Amino acid sequence: MFNALPEELLTNILRHLDHPSLLACRLICHKINNVIQSSAELQYYIELGMDGLVDCAASSTPYSDRLATIIRRRHAWAAMEWNDTVSAHLPGECLAYELVADVLAKLTEAHEFVCVELPSMPRAADTGQMDASSIDTWDLPFAARDFAMDPTQDLVIFLEDTRIPVASEKSRNTHLYIYSMATKEPHQLAQSPCLVINGSESKSLVHPFVGHPFIICALLQIAEDVVLIQYTTLAAESDHIRLWNWMTGDLWLTEDYSMTCGGCGLLSARSFMLPSLKGCGSIQIYTLEFSNDSRTPRSELKATLLLPSSTPGLSLRSFTSHSPPIVARPLQSKMASPAAESHIHVMSVAYNAQFGIRFRLFVPNRVLLSYAAVAPGHAPMLVPWDTWGPDNTRIMEQGDTSTWLRFVHGTRVVAGPPVSRIPPLEAPTSQTVLQLYDFNPHCRRLHSSVQPINGAKAELQPETVVRKGLAFAETVTTRLPYRRVLHRFDKRYTSFFIDDERLLALEHTPPSGRDLNNIDIYTF
């Protein structure tokens, strides 16, 4: 009876399935297989899911064009075949920067906020230079040292710079200012345009000489309606986490940790991870749980994921994480965007050996979210490395120690040259080697006919083996599938950033090479 249905009706039924179910349906019978094979819409949803993307329903582009774009862009990244290149100059000494939802922005030492909407492939300038009029610069009415943004919510949140002396220093708090990127005014959805880090809530936060929480380093993150800050003060050797609902102004989470924790990372608007330096190291998964009679959630530990046991005498020196930005909604101009569960978290793990041993640990967000999904009230799980790690992660020696962020987007990660145990015999040349990791090498992609060009070399990587004694008590093998692309640029770059359709290369600017001024934008 099912086979007797018209193809149009079968298509209407099948469009409600996810991509694994559509692939399974192709095996039912020839008719259903032919319906799926002949439908650009169903093929589009299959390819979308296989690339870890979700559809932006606002797009009016025909499904045949969407399907062609998905396949073309996939092949372009695999072959490092960009469509256009444009250069941008963002003036001012860089204090902080962000790359989120097609917007590149930076905060300068002069407390200017400089942002630019990046060009898409059809909009790249013919001159090879980005139009200066597209760069928006505005003077902030306060001193700021860091910021986070979500252009899909017209939102930017600035962290006040408490290093700048002001009058009435003894009564000063630290503030987060919530602004609209379009109007350059306090955000219209924020009931309070200013959130306060109150030093009086804990004596350990207050520096004995300046009388306020003198923040020496901070990490600011946004996920939908929440903003999280993790910071360290000069007064005490401890880390502090504060999390607000930025719309209502309610302070949802106040936690103070010893310096045995690493960089906190949001998994979603209601869950986060906290790397721990205790013992052999672990990743702690927390959720925000609401009771029926409270507007304020409590944090609940769901699971502790253990790292491999370290070599006797070695201990973790640092454990930090970097994740793609979380946006509240897809951009209206986008055809598709990465699914939240497909994001890759990149964790930097350093051991206190004589010369320092560094690794990068790559973990899909879906793995961490699966532990966050445990029902409230259950006892926290203690998960050994052999249970969760070998098949769900990759551990690689870290050669590139750059602290520039936004090198990961969706399932793709960009990095510098591969690790070499032989020190360079010659001075640095004018060339730069790029590594691109893609942690979604599904079968359709692996059997494609893409041929690397432009000097790129694409390879599916075998399992990674870290031999016993280098940092771990036993040999550690990890098998999370990924494809690596190597490409050599005939130009010296300091670092690379990435989003869904662009590779941003930061030009080396002597003497420090640490400013965010001249950028080459490769559009795919």
TrEMBL record:
Residues 1-48 form the F-box domain. PROSITE patterns: FBOX (PS50181). Transmembrane segments: none annotated. Pfam families: F-box. Gene3D superfamilies: 1.20.1280.50. InterPro entries: F-box-like_dom_sf, F-box_dom. This is F-box domain-containing protein.
